[in-house]
Design goal:
Layout (H helix, E strand, L loop, with lengths): L2 H16 L5 H9 L1 H15 L20 E5 L6 E5 L5 E8 L5 E9 L6 E5 L9 E3 L8 E8 L4 E7 L6 E9 L5 E2 L11 E2 L4 E7 L5 E6 L8 E6 L7 E6 L9 E5 L5 E7 L7 E6 L5 E12 L6 E2 L11 E4 L3 E4 L8 E6 L35 H4 L22 E8 L5 E6 L5 E3 L6 E7 L5 E10 L11 E7 L18 E2 L5 E4 L8 E7 L42 E8 L6 E7 L4 E5 L8 E8 L1 E9 L8 E8 L1
Parallel strand pairs: 1-3, 10-12, 11-13, 20-22, 21-23, 30-32
Antiparallel strand pairs: 2-9, 3-8, 4-7, 4-9, 5-6, 5-8, 12-19, 13-18, 14-17, 14-19, 15-16, 15-18, 22-29, 23-28, 24-27, 24-29, 25-26, 25-28, 31-38, 32-37, 33-36, 33-38, 34-35, 34-37
Helix pairs in contact: 2-3
C-alpha cells in the first residue's frame, strides 16, 4: 500500500461515513480527476475575487504617478505588500472601488522592516497644490490615514521613505469605515476636493495631522437665501477656527469665528447672500490634532419667528445690518465678545448697486420783482413813512426754526435679568450701559431726510452669551418727529432757542446729564397810543420854522420808547421720572428765577409777575434710562 493510501485512506473513510451531505462524489472526483481539481480551484478564485484586492503586491515599476499600481478594492480588503528598495524609491498606488461605489476607508501603512521610517502622500485630484502629507510617527511605526475617500475615480497615494530614512518592506492594510451619517474624508484640503455637505443637516470631521484643513461645500440650492443656524462642537484641548466663504477663491472670509475647547459655538442667525455660488466652510486647528475625537458641523434652517431678526455677519461697521426706522427685532450674542452693528434708515434702504447721488449746493432764491418795479432797495420805503407804528414783538429777535424731520429713539433690552447691554452711536466714544435686565436707550438723535443712524450693541455683562436657544436682546427703533411741539435740536444755548408761545406745549428729552434745552417766550409790550389827528384848520398849512429849521415853538423830543407793563406768567414742567429743573433768565442772561423743588416724578411750576420783554427757560435734569419726554407750557394769566 502506498504512503498516501496508508494515511489518507482511513480519513476519507471516516469522512464518507460521518458525512450527511452529498459531497462524497465531489471528493472522490477531485481525488481521481486532475481536471476537476483545477476547475474547482477556478470557481473558488471567482468566488473570492469580488471581495478581495486584485493586486496583493505592488507592481514595479511604479515610481511615477502614471505607473501607479492599481488596487481595486472589494468587500474583503486584503493587505498589500510593498518594498522601498532604496531611500529614494517611490511607490505609487491608485485606489479605486468597484461598481461605482463610494467608500470611506482607514488606510494603514506599516513598516515590516523595523528601521524603515516612511511617509504617505495623498494626491488631490485636479488640484495644482502639493499632495497631502502624512508623517506622524517614526521608524518602524505605522502611518494611518483615518478617513480616505475611495471611488471609481483613481485616488493616487505615494509611499516613500522619510528624508533621513532607509529602505525596507511595508504592508498596506485597509478597513472600511461604517459611518452613521455624513463624514468628511481626505483629501479635502483643497477647494477642488471639498467634501459635499448636503445641508441642512450634520457632518462630522477629524483633524488627523498637524495643519489639517477640512473644506466643505454647500450648494446654492441648499441655501435659498434664508436664515440658517450654524454650530460646531468642541474638541478638548483644541481651539478650532471656522471661516465661511461665498467664493471658491477662499480669499476674503464672509465670516470668521473661533470655537473654544470647552463649549460649542456658532451662529444661530446666519444669512448667506442672495446670488452666492455656494458656501465654503473651512475648518482648521493649527498644529493640534486628535484622531479619536471628532467635531460636528451642523447647518439647520432657523425656525420661523413673528418679528424681524438680527442677521449675521454684522460684526463690523462695513457689514452693518440695514433696517428701517420703526423696526423691532430680536438678536443674539453668539460669543461674549460679539458686537452687532446696525444702520437705521429714515427713508428707503438703498440697494447695493444703486448709483450714488451727488448732492448739489442749494441755490439762493431770487427775489420776485413785480411789473414796473426796479428791484432796487429802498424803492418802497417812502410808502411806509407816516404809518402808525406797530407794537414791538420781543420774539422777533428769536430766529424761526424749521420743524425737525426725523428724531430717532433706539431702545435695546437684554432678555436676561442678570445681563447688561451696551448701546453706542458709531463715531462716538460714549457707550450707554444698561443696569442688569434694564433698557439702554439712545434718547433723541436728529437724522436728515434720506440719512441713517449707525449704532452698535454689545454684551457688557452677559455670562452665558453664546449659542443660545433663545434671543439675547430686543431692539426697537422709533421716529419721534411727529410728536406735536417736539423740540428742535440743537437748542442748547440762547442763540439756538426754540420759541415757546402762549398756551403752547413743548415736548423735549433730557438726553444726557449735560443736556440743556433752551426755550424763548415773550411778555408782550402794550399796544402804542395812536397820535392825535390834525384839525381841518391846520390841514394844508405849513408850520412856521425857526432859524434852525424846526417848527417855531416846538420842543426837541427823543424817540418814544415802548411802554412797559407787568403780566402774571405761569411756567409748568409736567411730572417726569427724571428730576427736572429749570432756570428763568432775561434777554441779557440775568438769572430771574431757579426752580427745582418737587424732585423726581414731581411737577415743577413757577408763577410770577414779569415786565414786558424777552425771556429764556433753561430746562435740565438728572438723566434717567427711561427717556420719557417732558412737557413745558407757558401761560399769561389775567
Amino acid at each position: 500500500m502506498s504512503i498516501s493510501a496508508r494515511y489518507f485512506g482511513p480519513i476519507l473513510l471516516v469522512l464518507l461515513a460521518t458525512s450527511s451531505c452529498d459531497c462524497e462524489s465531489r471528493i472522490r472526483s477531485m481525488i481521481g480527476d486532475k481536471g476537476n481539481r483545477v476547475e474547482e480551484a477556478k470557481k473558488a478564485e471567482q468566488r473570492r475575487a469580488p471581495s478581495e484586492s486584485s493586486a496583493p503586491r505592488e507592481q514595479e515599476p511604479n515610481d511615477f504617478p502614471a505607473q501607479a499600481t492599481l488596487l481595486e478594492l472589494g468587500g474583503d480588503l486584503r493587505p498589500v505588500k510593498g518594498t522601498l528598495s532604496s531611500p529614494t524609491d517611490h511607490d505609487w498606488f491608485a485606489l479605486t472601488s468597484r461598481n461605482g461605489e463610494s467608500w470611506q476607508v482607514e488606510l494603514t501603512v506599516t513598516p515590516t522592516t523595523p528601521t524603515l521610517d516612511l511617509m504617505v502622500l495623498v494626491e488631490v485630484p485636479g488640484a495644482p497644490g502639493a499632495p497631502t502629507e502624512y508623517h506622524i510617527t517614526g521608524a518602524g511605526e505605522p502611518e494611518v490615514i483615518p478617513i480616505l475617500a475611495v471611488s471609481e475615480q483613481p485616488q493616487r497615494i505615494l509611499i516613500q521613505s522619510a528624508p533621513d530614512g532607509t529602505s525596507g518592506d511595508y504592508e498596506i492594510s485597509f478597513k472600511k469605515r461604517l459611518a452613521g451619517g455624513a463624514i468628511e474624508a481626505e483629501p479635502n484640503d483643497e477647494v477642488d476636493a471639498a467634501t459635499a455637505f448636503e445641508a441642512p443637516g450634520l457632518i462630522e470631521g477629524f483633524y488627523d495631522r498637524p495643519n489639517d484643513r477640512d473644506i466643505f461645500y454647500v450648494a446654492p440650492s441648499r441655501l435659498d437665501g434664508s436664515l440658517v443656524s450654524l454650530q460646531v462642537t468642541p474638541i478638548d484641548g483644541i481651539v478650532q477656527t471656522l471661516q465661511l466663504f461665498t467664493s471658491r477663491d477662499l480669499q476674503t472670509p464672509y465670516l470668521s469665528m473661533q470655537i473654544p475647547p470647552d463649549r460649542s459655538a456658532g451662529i444661530p442667525n446666519l444669512r448667506v447672500p442672495q446670488g452666492a455660488l455656494g458656501l465654503w466652510v473651512v475648518m482648521t486647528a493649527g498644529e493640534k490634532f486628535n484622531r479619536q475625537k471628532s467635531y460636528q458641523l451642523q447647518l439647520l434652517a432657523h425656525p420661523p419667528v413673528d418679528k424681524a431678526l438680527e442677521e449675521e455677519p454684522n460684526d463690523a461697521a462695513a457689514s452693518a445690518q440695514q433696517i428701517k426706522v420703526g423696526t423691532a427685532l430680536s438678536g443674539y450674542f453668539h460669543t461674549p465678545e460679539d458686537v452687532d452693528y446696525f444702520r437705521v434708515y429714515v427713508g428707503t434702504i438703498p440697494s447695493a448697486d444703486a448709483p450714488a447721488v451727488e448732492e448739489k449746493p442749494a441755490e439762493e432764491p431770487t427775489p420776485e420783482v413785480g411789473e414796473g418795479e426796479t428791484g432796487e432797495p429802498g424803492a418802497e420805503e417812502d410808502e411806509e413813512v407816516g404809518e402808525t407804528a406797530q407794537p414791538v414783538d420781543p420774539l422777533a429777535a428769536v430766529a424761526d426754526k424749521d420743524p425737525i424731520r426725523h428724531l430717532l429713539r433706539v431702545t435695546a433690552k437684554p432678555t436676561r435679568e442678570d445681563a447688561r447691554i451696551g448701546l453706542a452711536v458709531q463715531g462716538s466714544s460714549d457707550v450707554l450701559t444698561s443696569q442688569p435686565g434694564a433698557e439702554a436707550i439712545l434718547c433723541n438723535r436728529v437724522v436728515e431726510e434720506g440719512g441713517y443712524l449707525e449704532l452698535s450693541l454689545r454684551p457688557v455683562e452677559y455670562p452665558e452669551a453664546g449659542l443660545q436657544q433663545d434671543f439675547d436682546y430686543e431692539l426697537v427703533t422709533e421716529d419721534l418727529a411727529k410728536i406735536e411741539g417736539i423740540e428742535v435740536e440743537p437748542n442748547d444755548a440762547t442763540g439756538q432757542a426754540d420759541k415757546l408761545l402762549e398756551g403752547q406745549k413743548r415736548v423735549g428729552f433730557v438726553a444726557s446729564a449735560q443736556d440743556v434745552d433752551v426755550y424763548a417766550f415773550a411778555v408782550p409790550f402794550p399796544a402804542p397810543t395812536p397820535e392825535p389827528e390834525a384839525s381841518d384848520s391846520e390841514e394844508g398849512q405849513a408850520p412856521e420854522l425857526d432859524l434852525f429849521g424846526n417848527p417855531r415853538g416846538a420842543k426837541p423830543s427823543a424817540p418814544a420808547a415802548p411802554a412797559f407793563e407787568t403780566r402774571k406768567v405761569s411756567l409748568r414742567l409736567a411730572p417726569n421720572p427724571a428730576n427736572l429743573a429749570f432756570k428763568l433768565r432775561d434777554d441779557e442772561g440775568g438769572l430771574v428765577a431757579q426752580v427745582n423743588r418737587a424732585g423726581a416724578g414731581g411737577e415743577e411750576r413757577l408763577t410770577m409777575d414779569l415786565p414786558s420783554g424777552l425771556y429764556f427757560v433753561h430746562v435740565s435734569g438728572t438723566h434717567t434710562n427711561s427717556c420719557e419726554p417732558y412737557e413745558l407750557t407757558f401761560d399769561l394769566l389775567p
